[in-house]
Design goal:
The complex is a heterodimer of chains A (about 700) and B (about 250). Chain A has about 700 residues and is of the alpha+beta class. Chain A folds into three domains: about 110 residues, Penicillin-binding protein 2a (Domain 2) (Alpha-Beta Complex), CATH 3.90.1310; about 120 residues, no CATH class; about 350 residues, Beta-lactamase, CATH 3.40.710. In chain A, about 40% of the residues lie in helices and about 20% in strands. In chain A, strands 2, 3, 8, 9 and 15 form a five-stranded mixed sheet that branches. In chain A, α11 runs antiparallel to α22. Chain A is elongated, with a radius of gyration of 39 Å. Chain A starts with a helix and ends with a helix. Chain B has about 250 residues and is an alpha+beta fold. Helix content of chain B is about 30%, strand content about 30%. Chain B contains three helices and 13 strands. In chain B, a hairpin with a 4-residue loop joins β1 and β2. The longest helix of chain B has about 40 residues. The chains are: A alpha+beta (about 700), B alpha+beta (about 250). At the A-B interface, β3, α7 and β9 of A face β6 of B.
């Protein structure tokens, strides 16, 4: 081949090589561009996941106030002594190196062929012993393992991870000792607890003393240097200035890790450490959890390969939750609870016009401060044994007794069975079918009209006219007043098992037909009728307003909306004279009838008492299966312009308890009416001044 | 340089430097003395009268305090309360002040030889001054309440909730300032209704009730949990000549 040809061939090879290199280089560039531009997000995510950590902090919950603005549920500080582990890293390291040096020095003293006795002289007694086939390994102080074969030392070893953990623990225990010295505590820290925190929550402070008393907090602040790695960590816990007042309505919170705020918080793909927050468990705390719960705070940290904090990348402060103002009047609430202290009872007081709940008391109850920051098993069991968890006002189901006669009257008047001239002769019993149904007055009430029948609570009058009206109409009327369904008050777990029995229900549930005797029982609020005290309070407020429904609310209605409240439902459907008959009967009950123990001179009160009988259905109760009495009271005042409706239900707890609406519940109502009107007059006087 | 030598040098520096500050302080006292010597008889008589009146008032107050102390003792015995920590007051003359951005300190003429202990509280007639930071043979360094590296516990007068007080950067000629933290959000203060901060005995350094400063504005803290705001300390804090060091009697024993 000539030189020219050789050169040409060589050129081609170079060109080919250049082309190949060019292609590879282009591929390389393309791949680089692909990585840089197309897969950029994926790599950034990977980098973020590896190097960034997110901390979610709870936001302080909003407060709960009563109708005049007084605090019912607030936040108070809770202090704990913590240590930030990244601040003691150098100490961990130097302690570890020191321990390694010490162990090495000890190890050098142990020589092969030494006997156990000789080793024991140097290292002291062993901590752990492990036997294998031919050998026994003893673990001594400083995690020095010495293996013996045929009675003499065959080898020595050290487990460095154990040594490392021990060094870290030593540092932590040193700081804990400092706290113990200042506070006089005797706290200890276990390796298990420390290891768990170190492995899972390295970025969060390690709690040395989780809950400091005010004195301990003060001592640590005063006596610890400001630059100490021990810091005082402050968070908040729920605080209830009125202790057990309105406990069922207010509810309580439980500790729960902070949740992400539905995508608003950045860094959701990062490894997240969550501090403990709070979540409503019952009452208003649960119903308004979303409103009370603030927006959690967020910190994003860049961490080093060990997982310790390196630099703060992003920080968002937590936002305070919204506060709510309830309609509760704490003065009345406290007074109501005082009046039924030691009893099983419920009291509900409503603002007649607005449906605002002024009082919602249920006893037995619990001190909310005992449930914060957490509920101990002992406290839980104590409340359970007392029956304190049940909110009797919204969850307690009771036959309404004679208070139901108001509804029977309305049904009878609307059915035109009961009218002003209708006179009934009460002989002490009413014979329905073959059975005699007794009146509570065995001598009878003689000639009696509707007003006196209501005032004296004549049973036979209502047996008679109830049967004449018919169960269909009574049940229909009860449903018209909403007694068959929950009231819809903003409290969780309101019962849905209330019952207005009728023919269809009886056939469907019991498989029996309906008899007139059943109607007679329902007419006086006995039999299968079951309602809650809150329902009866709504019923009372509705009657006072001459309407059929009251929509109760436990949230205070703003002043500008108070005159424009629609409760739903219809007008009561009675003419003025017809309604006046009921009013007169209820007023006479207070003047000379069954409710006269609630009489207050100068205040016109309309009321109806009731005494019902129930079988004790609590299997744990010693009186299970026995008959207990229930004392009821419903009433409103003033008669000409009603502003407050009160319902009281007191449960008998012993068959010997002779509770009666007139003697047990009416005096309680009198005290409450008195407190309410006295406060109202006081306000009026203050305003005038 | 080896650490022990460094430490020895640092210590000896204080011990050598202290006499010069002390000498300066004595010279100032002498200057004041001669200044007073030159005052006229009439002025001295007037001063003497004022002093007599003041002494009379103080005598009355001492008697009142004594009867209150006895009453307190009687009530404590009646309720079987543990005795409150007792303090001995060691009056000390200030020889030197160091007010900079990072620390606010004073050096006094009393030291280890007078039984002064590190961490002891320091007060004056207007309230709290600070705490003893370092004790040398004949001198002590006091860290002032206004020092950013100082913190203590206080309460609002009439309240028991312990609050966090920390010094704040303030100029040597300006108003002595601090910060109050962890105030419950239910506390509302204003210029018309300021809060008076007093010491709390909970921390074990100061007796309770000593005046500390006033707070007239609070804002929500950065974490939203509490409120915080500036504390204004008495304006004469940087102009003191003498302070009293509280030496706990139990500690001293």
């Amino acid at each position: 081949m000539s030189g020219q040809q050789k050169k040409r061939a060589s050129n081609w090879r170079i060109i080919t090589l250049v082309c190949i290199c060019g292609i590879f280089f282009t591929l390389l560039l393309a791949s680089l561009a692909f990585r840089q531009f197309v897969e950029r997000h994926e790599y950034r995510d990977k980098e973020n996941r590896q190097t960034k950590r997110r901390i979610l902090q709870p936001a302080p919950r909003g407060e709960i106030h009563e109708r005049e603005g007084r605090l019912l549920v607030g936040n108070q500080s809770r202090h704990s002594a913590v240590i930030y582990l990244d601040q003691v890293r150098k100490e961990f390291r130097s302690q570890y190196l020191k321990d390694v040096r010490d162990t090495r020095a000890l190890r050098e003293q142990i020589q092969n062929k030494m006997t156990y006795t000789e080793v024991e002289k140097v290292l002291g007694t062993f901590i752990k012993r492990k036997e294998e086939d031919q050998s026994v390994t003893f673990t001594f102080e400083k995690f020095l393992n010495v293996t013996f074969e045929k009675g003499v030392v065959s080898r020595t070893s050290v487990k460095s991870s154990d040594l490392q953990w021990e060094a870290r623990l030593k540092v932590i225990r040193r700081y804990l000792h400092q706290i113990n010295q200042i506070t006089g505590r005797k706290n200890v820290v276990s390796r298990k607890k420390f290891e768990r925190h170190f492995n899972n929550k390295l970025l969060l402070p390690f709690a040395l003393v989780p809950k400091l008393t005010a004195k301990e907090y003060a001592r640590l602040l005063d006596q610890l240097p400001l630059d100490s790695p021990i810091q005082i960590f402050t968070d908040s816990t729920r605080y209830y200035p009125y202790h057990s007042a309105a406990s069922h309505s207010l509810g309580y919170v439980v500790v729960e890790e902070v949740e992400d705020d539905g995508g608003e918080l950045n860094g959701q793909n990062l490894k997240t450490f969550r501090l403990q927050g709070k979540k409503g468990k019952t009452g208003l705390e649960l119903s308004f959890n979303d409103r009370l719960d603030g927006t959690p705070g967020r910190e994003i940290w860049r961490v080093d390969p060990m997982g310790f904090q390196f630099e703060l990348v992003d920080k968002h402060l937590p936002k305070f939750g919204q506060s709510i103002q309830t309609s509760l009047d704490i003065d009345l609430q406290v007074q109501a609870e005082k009046l039924i202290e030691g009893k099983k009872a419920a009291i509900v007081a409503l603002d007649v016009q607005t449906g605002e709940v002024l009082v919602l008391a249920s006893k037995p109850d619990y001190n909310l401060n005992d449930l914060s920051p957490f509920i101990s098993t002992a406290v839980y069991k104590k409340i359970e044994n007392q029956g304190g968890w049940l909110n009797r006002a919204t969850q307690g189901l009771y036959p309404p007794g004679s208070t139901f006669k108001i509804l029977t009257t309305i049904a009878g008047i609307r059915r035109q069975v009961i009218y002003d001239g209708a006179v009934y002769q009460c002989e002490g019993f009413e014979k329905i079918g073959e059975r005699k149904y007794p009146c509570h007055n065995p001598r009878g009430h003689f000639d009696i009209k509707i007003q006196r029948a209501l005032a004296l609570s004549c049973n036979t009058y209502f047996y008679h006219f109830g049967v004449k009206t018919g169960i269909d109409h009574i049940a229909k009327e009860a449903r018209r007043f909403g007694l068959h369904e929950p009231t819809g008050v903003q409290l969780p777990y309101e019962t849905k098992r209330m019952l207005i029995p009728d023919k269809q229900w009886k056939r469907k549930r019991i498989g029996e037909g309906w008899a007139s005797g059943h109607t007679a029982n329902v007419a006086i609020g006995q039999g299968d009728v079951l309602v809650t005290p809150l329902q009866m309070a709504c019923f009372t407020a509705s009657v006072a307003r001459r309407q059929t429904r009251t929509r109760p609310t436990i949230i205070r209605i703003p002043d500008e909306q108070r005159n424009n409240i629609k409760h739903g439902g219809d007008a009561i459907g009675l003419s003025d004279p017809q309604f006046q008959q009921i009013l007169t009967g209820m007023e006479q009950a207070v003047q000379f009838g069954t409710a006269q123990l609630c009489k207050i001179p100068g205040i016109r009160i309309a009321a109806k008492t009731g005494t019902a009988q129930v079988k004790d259905s609590d299997r744990k109760s010693p009186t299970f299966g026995e008959k207990l009495t229930l004392a009821w009271f419903i009433g409103f005042a003033p008669v000409d312009n009603p502003s407050i409706a009160i319902t009281i239900c007191v449960e008998g707890t012993d068959p010997n308890d002779n509770y009666q609406g007139g003697t047990t519940a009416a005096p309680i109502a009198r005290n409450l009416f008195w407190t309410y009107f006295a406060k109202k007059s006081q306000k009026r006087l203050t305003k005038r001044d | 340089m080896p650490i022990p030598i460094k430490k020895a040098l640092r210590k000896s520096f204080y011990e050598f430097q202290a006499p010069s500050w002390e000498a300066l302080s004595w010279a100032r006292d002498l200057q004041n003395f001669w200044g007073h010597r030159s005052e006229s008889h009439a002025e001295l008589i007037q001063e003497g009268r004022d002093l007599a009146r003041l002494n009379g008032a103080y005598r009355l107050q001492v008697m009142e305090n004594e009867s209150l102390r006895l009453e307190l003792k009687r009530l404590e015995a009646l309720l079987d309360l543990p005795a409150q920590p007792n303090f001995r007051y060691e009056i000390a003359r200030i020889t030197h002040r160091q007010i900079s951005t990072w620390w606010h300190e004073m050096i006094v003429r009393k030291g280890r030889e007078d039984g002064i202990l590190e961490g002891a509280g320091v007060v004056y007639s207007g309230g709290i001054v600070g705490k003893v930071q370092t004790v040398h043979a004949g001198t002590s360094v006091i860290r002032l309440v206004t020092s950013p590296s100082f913190r203590m516990v206080a309460t609002f007068q009439g309240d028991t909730q312990p609050l966090y007080i920390q010094g704040w950067q303030s100029a040597s000629m300006g108003t002595p300032l601090g910060r109050i933290r962890n105030v419950p959000v239910s506390v509302h203060l204003s210029k018309e209704n300021p809060g008076l901060l007093v010491s709390s005995s909970l921390g074990g350094v100061f007796p309770s009730g000593l005046h500390l400063g006033t707070v007239d504005q609070l804002a929500q803290s950065s974490n939203g949990l509490f409120k915080e705001g500036p504390v204004v300390f008495p304006s004469d804090l940087y102009r003191l000549n003498e302070v009293a060091i509280l030496v706990p009697i139990q500690m001293n024993n």
